[in-house]
Design brief:
It is built from ten helices and 17 strands. By secondary structure, it is an alpha/beta fold. It folds into two domains: about 130 residues, Rossmann fold (3-Layer(aba) Sandwich), CATH 3.40.50.720; about 230 residues, Dihydrodipicolinate Reductase, domain 2, CATH 3.30.360.
Length: about 375
Amino acid sequence: MAKPKQKEFGVGIIGYSIGRVHAHGWQGVGEVFHPAKAKARLVALSGRTKERVQLEAQRYGFERTYADWRRLVADDDVDIVDNCAPPYLHAEATIAAAEKGKDLICEKPMARNATEARQMLRAAEKAGVAHMVGYNYRFVPAVALAKQIIDEGRLGRLYYYKGSYLNAYAHYENPETPFDWHHSSEMSGYGALGDLGTHAIDMARFLVGEVKSVQSMSRNFVNSRPKKKRSSEKVKVDVDDLTVSVLSLKNGAVGLLEASWMTPGRRDFLAFEAHGSKGSLMFNLERLNELEVYLPGEDPKLEGPRNVLVLGREHPFMTRYWANQAGGFSWENSFTNELNHYLECLVDRRSVSPQGATFLDGYRNCLIMDSMVESAKKGRRVEVEG
């Protein structure tokens, strides 16, 4: 009996920074999930710097390159537009791709604000195309295991959730770090909140549910940066370096969220804690194969928190990796898992939700960030719309 023909989707990626991570992830689908339900063919890569685009295209085997994302969107061989450009290009390019009938992936944050995110959501829904936002940490096995434990009610009634994303990204604690798009609200929408906090918000929504209201405080510590490296000309910085927010969750729990790129010593500290009436769990991305779990009463001999190595075949997503081997799962594998999930959902004609984040999730995320910005400016609690 002949084997069924593998479905193939042409992929076009806009942007080559996080875009190269996505390219690596697309390539990994066929290897890790062999025989995969579908194959991703890297058709086109676009970006603003010709030499860099060509270098990355050669590295990952793209068939062609474009200097203008519009040509990529118009390419008939591109079935999926994967938007990895900075946030100021998310809405225009993604909406244009939706109008061309392309299936969509957009990196986080989905947009510079909730207004743009709503427009993107409506365009995708109107076109009837698939859509996903790049919250790849949903596809880390330890995070997925935490989700299972919470959904099974093993923590009981949730009381308190704490989420953090802290680092010293590109030495942002150094005032001499040159200005780039991250430092401009016109280009990025938000600062540390959008670059890092958006992931912490998604983790909170994914694990424990919707946010009802926020009470926030933000600070900008370095208000100008050199225009270029070793330049005496300064450019104004108008985004947050730090945002902290107290959350009121719709399930009655209290939350705390913090995001900063000015925390020296923190390399990639995406962390969360969930505490309930029956137990607690804790996770830290810097130790991404570990989940700390406390479920009192399960075994009196093991009273107290225990560290679970999430490397066995019985754990989420681990059947395709080097199970039970130290270092059997790494950061880039989360993208492979995420993109394979997207392809399987395309083949099965179903939404990427609830495991993946849809444009509705991206829109809700932007609503929460908008509310945090408003709360910090007004110095009061703000209800999140919807």
